[in-house]
Each structure stands twice: as C-alpha cells, then as structure tokens.
Amino acid sequence: MLNGIKSGSLSGLPVISAKTGKNLGVVVDIILKPGRKKIDGLIISGYGLLERKRYIPLEQIRTIGKHAVIIEETFSDDSKSSGLYGRSGGRYGSNMVGYQLVRGDGQELGQISDIILNPNDGTIEGYEVSKGIIEDIIEGRSILPYDASNSVSDDAVIVSIEQTDQIQPYNKGIRNILDENRN
Predict the structure, then answer these.
(1) What is the pTM of this model?
(2) Domains of the chain listed by start with CATH number
C-alpha cells in the first residue's frame, strides 16, 4: 500500500518562506513531466489585489506538510523561478485528473482520479484509479503504482500489461465493508 498524499489535498495549503516566515500564497497545482519519477515543482497563487501565480521548483521546497508547504527561500518577481510554468513540457497535475488509463493491449482500466505523491521527496508514487461513481461506491478505488516509462498523451496514459498486475485496492467500497461485517 502506498503511503503518500493525494496531490488534490495540496490545493489550498499555505506556502511559507523558511527564511522570513512570510506566507507567500497557497498551492494551486503540481507540475510533473512525463518520464520523470518526481514532480517538477508547485504552482502557487499569491495574495494581493492581483492574483499572481508562480512556479516553485522542487529544489526550493523544504517540506510538504499536512498543513503547509515550507520553501527554502523567497523569490522576487524577476527571479527565474517566478512566473507561470509553461516551458519544457511540464504538465499540470490537475489536468491529468480525468485522463484514461489504458493497458498496452487497448483495455481501459479507468480514469486517473488523483496523483499520489511522497511528501518527503516529491516522488510520484502512483495514480488513484476510478472506474466510475457506481463502481467506486460498490468496489472502491484502486492505486496503480507509477512507472516513469508510461506513455502519456493529451488524454490518456498507456500502461504495460505487466504493470496492471501491481494495481492495489485503495479504499473500501460497500461490498468490502459488508463482507468484513459478515466475518
């Protein structure tokens, strides 16, 4: 079982400078690049009259905690790390939610409902898989461990047949809860 946190639960967490203690804004999204095992960084939205989004590279993140994200240094508006992330092929994690997971032989496995991260080092642990609301309620969702070699298109992630053997149950559906109560 994976022990990470869902990327969706990072949304809205305050981002605090370790040097100044100043609250710099809140997490809006994660950035990841297909083919890499770790996230590339975070997108944060600052406070003020004009909502300004900034990119924080993973190297500047000291801690991703349950209640806040601590970064090593503050940044100015003219630093290379500020500004929206749009270069070098990164993808917003929230955009991948809803992507189809398809096995190499064409069998559909479900949709990505969230991305599971290791908060200690930014490693992508896996995808939370949904097979639809009814099946999620009855059977529960599952986790597909992340493999950096997966092919990612604009609306699907292609996984190997061997990788599908690693799918693990993530939360219990009604059927599993009822089965436990009978025993």
Answers:
(1) 0.82
(2) 5-92 (2.30.30.240), 95-182 (2.30.30.240)
